[in-house]
Amino acid sequence: MKPSNLLIIMSDEHNPKIMGAEGHPLVQTPNLDGLAARGTRFTSAYTPCPVCVPARAAFATGKYLHQIGYWDNADAYEGSVPSWHHRVREAGHRVDSIGKLHFRGREGDDCGFSREIVPMNILEGKGDLLGLIRDDLPERGMAWKIAKLAGPGESPYTAYDREIVTRAQIWLREEAPKHTEKPWVLFVSFVSPHFPLIAPAEFYYRYPLERMPIPKCYAPGERPGHPYLRDYAGSFNYDKYFDAEKLRKAVAAYFGLCSFVDDNVGKILRTVDACGLNENTRVIYTSDHGDNLGARGLWGKSTMYEEVARVPLIVSGPDISAGKRVDAPASLLDVYPTVMQCVGQDRPEMYDGQPGHSLLKLAQGERPERTVLSEYHGMGSTTGAFMIRHGRYKYVHYAAYRPQLFDLERDPEELNDLAEDPRYARTLTECRECLYRLCDPDSVDARAKRRQAELLALNGGREAVLKRGDLGFTPAPGYPAVFA
């Protein structure tokens, strides 16, 4: 493929099912749908971790968590492991970021960008210290935030996203023309639809409350009783604060925020067109992970269900097939080699153990023999969780709990756990063997907990961290943090 510029647009916590191109009957995302129609959509793409900070560290480095050791929301990327930003910049390309990074963000950190514009990083270089506590899990003090804030309005996050889209439009008009000798890479990273679930009125009122669906398996008697899910729901007890009205408001606000993201994406894509960049610029749209959005009584992220571990992933531009869908499993780690191929730097010296495969090659029909992994070692969990796709099956392995197994072909909503069905014993064994060829989950779980114990001690121990409190959500640049 001919080298081209690359625009990567990432949202935060976008459930891949909440998009018109995915067949959602209500949500309005015309710009993302149009991008999919002009390009290739990867329908089985997964995050390397279903929570922000480690997902973004893995996305930057192109490596799994167990390869790089950034385990949770208190252990952020600081530039010590080479990223695609470093490698592309060192090869002489302009590579800028605008918006949320969720890196450590301390003075002197070099995370590889030529310039970071209005970056959002973890608070105080420390982030969510409560997530370092992996036993006797504390109940989150800010768990009320999703239900009680849900509704129409503006928040620091929507204001921040408006600034991000403006900065991106300025960059495309004023900075891009300065860098024509080599392809540039621009990473634009929004914070919506991440909670608080406060959606601008223009988008919130597109979704009348009486039409909002009740989340899947929401009734208490329908919720699965797996111990991992009980741990998470007991610590992040968001659902405790919901009633029927708040539930519908939360769903409407999330839908509205997805439409808000779509509108911002549209503004950027129209600017690309207005600047005459369509013929030499490829575009990737994705998210760091999804959102439970009330399914099974769960909110936020941190599980391995499709609503959370799967991500939207669309690639469009020169030499990309239009209207195509790729069902083969893909990963956010595939973006690393995609960047290299896109800008003409797909050379052996640009890699040092990245397991990804270029999305451009996947779109052309290449099907490498590999297992795609997502792993979790963070807040609200007492045990490491590891998810793989093995053909039609999704296998979730827990270091301390019984596994889960789903047939995504027959059961795409993951309603029937097959792990204890003797008819699937062989499949379970095959999946377990695939996982162990990638890593030893018990060893990885132990490594993560050792690192977290070290960080906990450095921050004064359990009582000091509990006293600091629960960080509701990372504040946008220029806004104060809120603890409880």
Pick out its properties.
32% helix; 4-stranded antiparallel β-sheet; single chain; alpha/beta; 484 residues
Question: Can you lay out the helices and strands and say which pair or pack?
Answer:
Layout: E1 5-12, H1 30-38, E2 40-42, E3 45-46, H2 52-61, H3 65-68, H4 84-90, E4 95-100, E5 115-120, H5 145-149, E6 151-152, H6 156-175, E7 185-193, E8 198-199, H7 201-204, H8 227-235, H9 244-274, E9 281-287, H10 306-309, E10 313-316, E11 324-326, E12 330-331, H11 335-342, H12 359-363, E13 373-376, E14 385-390, E15 393-398, E16 404-407, H13 425-438, H14 441-458, H15 461-468
Parallel strand pairs: 1-7, 1-9, 2-11, 3-12, 4-5, 4-7, 6-8
Antiparallel strand pairs: 2-10, 9-10, 13-14, 14-15, 15-16
Helix pairs in contact: 6-9
Extended strand count: 16
Q: Poorly predicted ranges (pLDDT <50, ≥5 residues)?
A: none
Q: Fraction of residues in helices?
A: 25-40%
Q: Strand-residue fraction?
A: 15-25%
Biggest sheet, open or closed, and with what strands and sense?
A: 8 strands, mixed
Mean pLDDT: 98
What global shape is seen? globular
The order of strands across the largest sheet is 5-4-7-1-9-10-2-11
In terms of quaternary structure, what is this? single chain
- Specify the number of helices: 15
Characterize this entry briefly:
The chain has 15 helices and 16 strands. By secondary structure, it is α/β, with parallel strands linked by helices. Helix 6 packs parallel to helix 9.
